[in-house]
Recover the amino acids of this structure.
């Protein structure tokens, strides 16, 4: 069986020892070694620089180098070369220390022969190969881990593709790389990143058609192409890269959801082929880029969908805010119209009817018709009172005549007469809002809160505090010392129909104000209304509300 000849460099300053070791190696195992002798370290390094060797055998005691520094000089310049140390001193501790420092074996010249040296050489070559393979695997694993981290944290792999591929190119001992991305609008491949060619050359190949050159064929077919011996092959697809001095070339498709999104290729100018490990590293990097690109595209789609949804929600919210404004204004106008109708028409008719009824009673002498007219007079009086009360509820004239504080005083008297609720009022002297709509809104809100006191508090006393705050705003506090409620109770119904607390809260939001409820069992309830001194017509425009976060200030 034919064996490969092992190229051995023997660095030995003793001519007799050198001849003996050479003869032992030539006589062992059917002349498997080709031995070159150097008599000093300088000569040995020169030999290593001028020729390729599979292993170095060196003495630790040379004229120009002694001790562990002998093999360390070789390691520094030729880190991949296996080393076997030969010495005349049998010292196991020194051998262990030499191996710890990277030597593959340690032999004593007094106890060696051709077979032991040959076996040590073979083992040294094997161990060195395994060590280098392990280092290479570890290094590439760390590289892939680093790349995965960058791709995972990076916003877009296109932004740092150049630095990523430069790192991979150095690990593969390649001199060029090309990254093309598909431009769907133009239907072409666009050069996104590259190395190993000039900018002028890059501009010439900036756009590449599908099916042209190796990258174009990979993008068209979605399959990897590996080209070896590029400088001598007749494959026309290699014409473009041959001019770049590339000897081995591998191009992988970057896939996104089963479609080609681009290509990534590496070219070597110092060798004619790639190892399976090299191709596996390229494939893993391309897969990581594909996953990252898919993640980025998915995130972009989600952002686009969110943006579209936000726009639609914003549009609907603006419509809702405008509708709410219009409803508020319409309600105020309708309340005013109805109150005016009751006061100027219905009440006048009732008063006129009462006058005619009284006149008729004077002319009637019989007892029975007179009693009937008196009953009609009582009903008319009740109707007039009810009409006036309804007029005040809908649109209290006192708001126009005397202002908010006077209207609150009237409301306190009215609650006392109708419901037996004693209301104490404390108010600043200059507290009147400038706009009529604001006065009506606050009046209705306080009245609703007093109704809650009557229905839920279990007390006959309440208080209203009206105070002017800074920045032209007002604070109204309605409180009682009733039964109160806990955090899980719901004595205040936010969703009640009519002008309930839900309506108060929503309208205050539109005005840029807020409502705050404080209560505890046995300690009563305190409701605070805070709002600026402005009318609904002056509240924030819908567009302004949306710019501030999609809803009215609270």
């Amino acid at each position: 069986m034919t064996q490969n000849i092992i190229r051995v460099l023997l660095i030995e300053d003793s001519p007799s020892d050198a001849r003996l070791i050479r003869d032992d190696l030539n006589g062992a195992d059917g002349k498997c070694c080709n031995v070159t002798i150097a008599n000093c370290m300088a000569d040995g390094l020169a030999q290593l620089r001028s020729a390729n060797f599979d292993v170095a055998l060196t003495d630790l005691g040379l004229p120009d180098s002694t001790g562990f520094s002998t093999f360390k000089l070789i390691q520094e310049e030729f880190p991949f070369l296996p080393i076997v140390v030969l010495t005349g001193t049998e010292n196991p501790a020194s051998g262990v220390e030499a191996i710890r420092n990277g030597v593959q074996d340690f032999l004593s010249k007094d106890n060696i022969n051709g077979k032991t040296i040959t076996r040590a050489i073979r083992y040294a070559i094997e161990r060195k190969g395994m060590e280098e393979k392990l280092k290479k695997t570890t290094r590439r694993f760390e590289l892939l881990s680093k790349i995965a981290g960058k791709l995972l944290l990076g916003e877009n792999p296109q932004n740092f593709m150049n630095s990523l591929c430069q790192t991979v190119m150095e690990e593969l001992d390649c001199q060029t790389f090309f990254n093309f991305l598909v431009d769907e609008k133009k239907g072409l491949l666009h050069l996104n990143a590259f190395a190993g060619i000039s900018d002028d050359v890059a501009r010439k190949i900036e756009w590449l058609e599908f099916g042209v050159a190796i990258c174009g064929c990979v993008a068209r077919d979605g399959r990897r192409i590996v080209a070896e011996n590029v400088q001598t092959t007749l494959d026309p697809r290699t014409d473009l890269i041959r001019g770049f001095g590339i000897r081995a070339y591998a191009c992988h498709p970057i896939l996104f959801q089963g479609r080609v999104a681009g290509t990534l290729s590496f070219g070597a100018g110092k060798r004619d082929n790639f190892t399976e490990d090299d191709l596996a590293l390229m494939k893993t990097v391309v897969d990581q880029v594909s996953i990252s690109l898919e993640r980025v595209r998915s995130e972009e789609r989600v952002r686009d969908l969110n943006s579209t949804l936000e726009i639609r929600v914003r549009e609907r919210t603006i419509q809702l805010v405008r509708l709410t404004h219009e409803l508020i204004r319409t309600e105020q106008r309708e309340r005013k119209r109805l109150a005016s109708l009751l006061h100027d028409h219905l009440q006048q008719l009732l008063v006129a009817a009462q006058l005619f009824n009284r006149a008729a009673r004077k002319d009637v002498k019989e007892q029975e018709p007179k009693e009937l007219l008196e009953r009609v007079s009582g009903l008319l009086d009740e109707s007039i009172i009810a009409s006036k009360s309804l007029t005040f509820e809908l649109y209290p004239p006192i708001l126009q005549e005397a202002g908010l504080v006077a209207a609150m005083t009237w409301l306190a008297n009215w609650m006392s007469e109708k419901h037996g609720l004693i209301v104490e009022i404390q108010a600043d002297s200059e507290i009147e809002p400038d706009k009529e709509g604001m006065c009506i809104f606050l009046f209705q809100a306080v009245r609703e809160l007093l109704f809650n006191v009557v229905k839920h508090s279990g007390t006959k006393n309440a208080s209203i505090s009206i105070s002017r705050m800074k920045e032209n705003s007002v604070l109204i506090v309605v409180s009682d010392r009733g039964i109160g409620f806990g955090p899980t109770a719901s004595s205040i119904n936010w969703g009640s129909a009519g002008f309930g607390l839900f309506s108060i809260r929503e309208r205050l939001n539109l005005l840029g104000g807020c409502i705050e409820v404080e209560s505890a069992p046995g300690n009563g309830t305190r409701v605070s209304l805070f709002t600026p001194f402005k009318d609904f017509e002056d509240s924030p425009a819908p567009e302004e509300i949306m710019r501030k976060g999609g809803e009215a200030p609270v």
